[in-house]
Amino acid sequence: MSESVLRTKSKEFAKNTIFLTRKMNERKVEQTLINQLLRSGTSIGANIHEGRYAQGTKDLIAKFEIALKECYESEYWLEILCSTNCITKKEYEDFKNECVEICRMLVSSVKTLKAKL
User: Fold this and answer.
1) Residues with Cβ < 8 Å from 111, sequence gap 6 or more?
2) CA distance 64 to 66
3) 48, 71 in Cβ contact below 8 A?
4) What pLDDT, in 10s, does the model give residues 92-108?
5) Which of 10, 32, 62, 68 would suit a FRET pair with 104, their CA atoms being 20 to 30 Å apart?
6) How remote is the C-alpha of 99 from its chain's centroid?
7) In contact, 44 and 95? CB cutoff 8 Å
C-alpha cells in the first residue's frame, strides 16, 4: 500500500521534532518543555498510523481527532518555546507551518469521514 500524504507529512514532522528536541537538549532547555513537545509532536503521526488499522469509520475519526488535538498541543508548545527564546523564530515558523498544514489535512479528512456516516 502506498504511503498517504498525511502519513508522510506527520512522520516527517515527528522526525523533525526529534531532531529539534535533540538540539534543545544541547542548548540546556528545560527538560519538561522538551518532553511535552516530543510527546505531542510524535503522537500526531502515531495516531494517524494507528488509524490505518481502525475498526471502522468512527474509530478512524476518533484517531484523527486525537491526532488533531496533538497537533494543536504541539503548536502551543512551539509558541511557548519561541516566546521564551528556547527555539529561534525561524525554527518556530518552520514547525508552525508544518503543523498548520497537517492540521488542515486532518480537519479536511475528519469532515470527509463524518460526511460518509
Assistant:
1) none
2) 5
3) no
4) 999 999 999 999 999 99
5) 32
6) 6
7) no
Of 47, 56, 34, 58, give the one whose Cα is nearest residue 110. 58
Count CA atoms closer than 13 A to 39's CA, side-chain side.
11
Residue among 33, 17, 107 at smallest CA distance from 69: 107
- 13-29 burial: b if 16+ Cβ within 10 Å, else e: bbeebeebbeebeeeeb
Separation of alpha carbons 41 and 45, rounded Å = 8
**CA–CA separation, 90 and 14 (whole Å):** 18
Residues whose CB falls within 8 Å of the CB of residue 94, separated by 6 or more in sequence, listed in order: none
- The answer to whether 5 touches 105, Cβ cutoff 8 Å, is yes
φ/ψ of 56, rounded to 5, equals: 160, 180
Kindly report the CA angle at 52 between 1 and 41, in degrees rounded to 5?
Answer: 110
Residue-wise pLDDT for 4-36, tens only, equals 999 999 999 999 999 999 999 999 999 999 999
